[in-house]
Every structure is written in structure tokens, then in C-alpha cells.
Amino acid sequence: MPDFQTSLLREKFVISDKVPADFNDAVPIVAVSNRIMLPLVHRDGQSETLIVRAQNMHTATRMAAHITRSFYDYGPLVSRGSQFNWQEAWDGITKGYEQSWNSNRWISIYHKGRVVYEDGEGERHPFVDIIEQCDAVNKKDYSNSIEIAADAFSKAGKDVNISHDSNVALIMNIGEDEGKCGLIIRSPSKTTTFNFTAKSKGGRKIKISQCLTVAAAFLEGVQLAFFIGMNQKRLKLDLIDSGSPQARQTEDASRKLGRLNGAIAQFENMFKVNYRPDPPDLSKMVTEAEEFAKEILKKEIQAKIDSGELDDGDWVQ
After folding, report:
1. How far apart are CA 152 and CA 258, in angstroms?
2. What whole-number percentage of the chain has pLDDT above 90?
3. What is the reported pTM?
């Protein structure tokens, strides 16, 4: 298997009319997305480059894992046509918690600028399709695609400014016997940055899909830990009812977090894994989020105290 390199980007595009502000009442267009490029090269020489965009980071990364596994097992996906079931793949990675609680989820897969699969209850902004079309034409530097898009708008009679804010969430480099991955995970309470290196063990080779899957577990785990901690504090302070949908979601999120911890532990048992610095302790992050919730929920709690719904003694600053 040839070396594989990729990165996951958190992107935000802001498109505004190129006219003085005094004369412009139009609200700028905002398009957000997570993007991962998969430059796939099989040992038999076959190659295929696919782009995955999704509403959140972990589903984009999991879909990337599913794609790479199928590619290296069976060859290019697009040329297979109906032989590869995109819907089945998407349903498989979103079943359970994601399908139950995330109504904004969406996914789109691109090949040479063309959408080969799209789905989800949420809706991606059509501007990201334009960017992928421009990138396919450009074939050099992804950042130049923004200039190409602006030029396309100008030729259509609409001069616009396009700003692009991009943050790297994942960097990955996988070889035959070693995988290296760096993660930069941002939550409302803090930014967590760490690297892991996984080496072959007991004759078991490193697979790209396995490294992507464990990266997705960390990406989702940090988000879930913050959500669980916040809601556990709300439950303790009676800010949400124990029988409410929020409470049920918190219970489901806790079970999902347990499964993610299990997946990470399994990966660590299968390979020689080293972290630098130590990886986030997802269970500990739940407790940290509860402490952080005190500050975030202060106004909501004070309103409950003022109305008499909450005893002042239950709230310790």
C-alpha cells in the first residue's frame, strides 16, 4: 500500500457583494462544512481521488474510513457504479445516536468536482459544490479555487468578495508499517492538541481505515464529553427534566461515549500506540465540562434562583 496523506479541514466561507457597505443591504452568505480529501492509490496502480464533505467532523472521517477500506479491498468505487452502495455505507456510520439525535446531519461525496452521492436531513450550502467544481478545474492548489469561484461570479455579472476561514482538525500520514496522526480538537471550554503513532504489531499491518476510525472516535468523543457534562449539570440543578428528550439524549450520549472508549482501547491493543502528549481522557472531560458548566449556566441558574425555582444553596460558585 503506497503512503497515504490527508487532512480534515473545518471551513467557513463568507460571500458578500463587492460594493461599499453604505449601499449594500444584502446579508452575506455563509457556508460551513468539514472537508477531507482522499488521494487513493492502490498497489496495482489504480487510483481515485474522492472528497468527503459533511456537517460534522466525525461523520466525515468515518465515511472516509469506509471509503478507504473498500478501495484497498476492492479497487476504485466510482467505476463500480451501483456495485458500491453509498446509502448503505452512510446508514451504517450514522445508525444509532446520530440518526436519533442529529437532524442536521448531511454528507456529500465528490469525484472530479461532481457529486457522486449526497444524503442527510440537513442541507449543505450549494456554494461548497461550486468550490469543488472549481477545484476540479484548477487541479493545482485548493486555495486558488476560491479565486476561480469569485471570477465565475464576476463573469455571471455579480462581483463578490469571498473570505475563507479554515482550521485543520486532523493531519494523517499512513505508511505500510506505521501511522501518524495529529488532532486539533476545539470545544467551547478548551482546545485539545495531541499526536499518536501506531506501529504494526504481531504481524498485523496498519490500515488507513483503522487510523481514520480511531481519529473519528476522538473527534466525536470530545464533543460528546462536553455535551454530557453540560447536561449532567443541568439535570443536577433541575434545569432540565429527568424525563425530557434532553435527558434521554444525554443517556444515549453516555452509552455512545462508552463505545468510543472501547473502540480506542481495542485499537491500542491491536497496535503499538504512542501518544504525545497524553490523549484526552474522555471520561475526565465529562467532569471538567460539568465544572465549566457552572460559568456557562450562571445566568440561567440565577434566573431560576430569582424566580424561586432553584434554592440558592444548590448553586455554589
Report:
1. 48
2. 63
3. 0.90
Complete DSSP assignment for the chain: ---EEEEEEEEEEEEEESS-GGG--PPPEEEEEEEEEEEEE-TTS-EEEEEEEESSHHHHHHHHHHHHHHHHHH--SGGGGGGS-HHHHHHHHHTTHHHHH-TT--EEEEETTEEEEEE-SS---THHHHHHHHHHHH-S-TTHHHHHHHHHHHHTT--EEEEEEEEEEEEEEE-SSEEEEEEEEE-SS-EEEEEEEEE-BTTBPP-HHHHHHHHHHHHHHHHHHHHHHHHHHHHHTTSS-TTSHHHHHHHHHHHHHHHHHHHHHHHHHHSEEEEESPPP-HHHHHHHHHHHHHHHTHHHHHHHHHHTSS-GGG---
Residue 35 phi/psi, 5-degree rounding, is -130, 130
The full set of domain ranges for the chain reads 1-174, 175-317
pLDDT digits (tens, 9 = 90+) for 53-112: 999 999 999 999 999 999 999 999 998 866 789 999 999 999 999 999 999 999 999 999
Is the pLDDT confidence value at 1 over 90? Answer: no
Query: What is the C-alpha to C-alpha distance for residues 125 and 162, in angstroms, rounded to an integer?
Result: 14
Q: Which residues contact residue 69 at a Cβ distance below 8 angstroms, ignoring those fewer than 6 apart?
A: 207, 208, 209
Residue 26's φ and ψ, nearest 5 degrees, are: -70, 140
Integer angstrom CA distances of residue 104 from 45, 98, 107, 110, 248: 38, 10, 10, 20, 18
pLDDT by residue (tens digit) across 241-281? 999 999 999 999 999 999 999 999 999 999 999 999 999 99
- The bridge status of strand 114-119 relative to strand 272-276 is unpaired
Q: Which three cell numbers stand for residue 263?
A: 473502540
Q: Which phi and psi angles does 168 have, rounded to 5°?
A: -80, 130
pLDDT at 140 > cutoff 60: yes
Residues 118-138 have pLDDT tens digits of: 998 888 999 999 999 999 987
Which amino acid, 174?
I
